Fold:
Amino acid sequence: MQFPRTLSACVCIAASLLLAACHSMPEQSASLPAAGVVTLDSLAVPVSADENRAVSFTNKRSAFYYTQTHRNDHPEHAFFRGFNIAGRRIFSDYRLTVAGTALDPQTATVIVRPDALIRTYPQGITEALRLFDGQDVVEVEVRGAKGDVTLQLSGDTVTHVQSGPGTDAYTATQAGDSSAVDHTIVTELYPNVQASIEGALVNFTDASGYLVHADNETWMDARREPDKISYSPRSTRANDIQALWYEQLRAGAEFAAALGDSESATRWTAAADRLRSQFAHDFMDPATGRMADQLDARDVPNLQVRPNALFSLQLLDQPDDAARAARQAWEALVYPWGVATLDQRDPGFHPYHVAPEHYHKDAAYHNGAVWPWLNGIAIQRMIELGQVDLAWRLFTNTNEISLTRGVVGGSPENLDAYPHPGESVPRLTGTYLQGWSNAEQLRVWYQGFLGIQPDLEQGVTRLAPRLPKAFGDVEFNSTGTHSSPPPATLSWSSKRSTA
Structure:
């Protein structure tokens, strides 16, 4: 069987290492047409009854609504249908009746906008479903109806209790507390930060200052039942755990310094510096330039190629070491549709996430399955290494999946690494709409390509755009306030900037 090649990149060693653009993905046009006025209607995606795609909205707080455009029949995801707040189901569905006749979504013409699901029925009636930012409210708007309109909620947690003129009252037995308290003040967080760091230093660090853990205590946490053996054992010191520990120590030192705890700030900074000074010696293989995914209890490095190395490049002192590690991860793991969890040349590689005739899906979960959330760190590293156009191609491919497959406008949890025999694209698997998949795509758009870097402590926003050739120019507008500089406009292109 001929398997697809991963996105590959060439390397050129001079003063530094640069990754060359690959040819496994379709080329982008050199320039895009001038942008017109963008409206919600211009962003609408039509969905046919045969496609019957998933739709999910959030209020950007703790509530979400999931449904399908025409019928809720997905074998896994239909369980999540309806309005949910803080993990609790409020209601599962609703039915609209006009003049005594129920509207059937399967007969509707459907478009999905960023703000609403809009169904237009053969009778000329239009139904629009939307949520509102920061509010635990679902709006169902009906236009063009001739006759009385009623809306009936359904679900095993909702009970109809009263009807009145134009109003129906329901109770939900599992409704959560919709109030939210924002505890972000450093002085409130600091006791927990201090306890976490000090507890780790005393109980969970080794003689080199590395944070130790069990072999399933990383994000690659799938275990076999019933013996709880890890499907992706990562021994006692995984590279990404050390990167997280390093960043925790640095962030904790900043908290301590802000509150005048200079003794803790000094000790935690020294612990972070010590870890970083050891990392390259212990994790980098000089013969191959490969970063070890983990060290075992005997300090033996495991040289499997996994995406975790991309999270750990800041622990390397030498830019050439970081570039080599990034190149190896990109060549081995990045497909046109995303970043896989294990090198396809590894004997433990599983090309399909869901293949029950061969193995349990958790065996492939972190041993080959693609995770779109990993696209974010892969794109970030390519941008940092000057390979903006290469990064842009993976970014636009991810957008294409969100627009044409699965839940409308969102990214799933997983994909297969390879298409199944006879199929041209890999199947979407796992959770239909994964928060960190979407968050990482947004993060690299704003922080990576647009280069928007807010520094709340200093009260400034730094702009350092890294624009692909296909993108054109970008314009930033600052409105200004009574306590900030006057309004300003900054235009930026890949060739010049003007203020």
